Amino acid sequence: MTFIYIEDLEEASYFFEKVLQCEVVYQPSWAKVYRVSSNAYIGIVDESKGSVKEKYKGGTLISLTVHSIAPYYETIKAYGVDGLSDIKVFEEIGVKSFFFKGPGGYDFEIQMFTKPEIKKMFNTSD
Q1: Is the pLDDT of residue 83 over 90?
Q2: pLDDT of res. 126
Q3: What gap in Å lies between CA 96 and CA 105, rounded to an integer?
Q4: Average pLDDT over residues 111-126
Q5: Chain centre distance of CA 42
Q6: Residue 109 burial by CB count (10 A; 0-12/13-18/19+): exposed, middle or buried?
Q7: Beta-carbon count within 10 A of 37 CB
Q8: CATH homologous superfamily, domain 59-126
């Protein structure tokens, strides 16, 4: 489980629930935890109440792996998310992905593996 600290919890909730279509699995008063796959979770925390007092943001890439990239690209594009890149293929590492900015200025990537041996390694085979 990964937690990110957010200034605007309402904006971040909209992003995770509507744009990324993640399921809320736990919601205490100043945080939310979302299921991003069967055993992976990301939490958002109101930065004014969280236990980590973060001075600097950046240098973090939240990468979500999917089986088919095109539907996710079209959904995120329809929401007009900031910083949306084109879908790019990185043959040398066996990945097809696109990038965009999420709440709190965090960088996000939606990726899919293109080589069978990598899909198997990360248990993402079709």
Answers
A1: yes
A2: 61
A3: 23
A4: 83
A5: 8
A6: middle
A7: 12
A8: 2,3-Dihydroxybiphenyl 1,2-Dioxygenase, domain 1 (3.10.180.10)
- Model's pTM, two decimal places? 0.81
**CATH code matching the domain that covers 1-49, chosen among 3.10.180.10, 3.30.110.170, 3.30.565.10, 1.20.140.10:** 3.10.180.10
- CA distances, 63 to each of 25, 48, 96 (Å): 20, 25, 12
The answer to whether residues 43 and 8 touch, using CB atoms and an 8 Å cutoff, is no
Pairing status of strand 31-37 against strand 40-46: antiparallel
Query: pLDDT-derived band of residue 58, with 50, 70 and 90 as boundaries?
Result: low
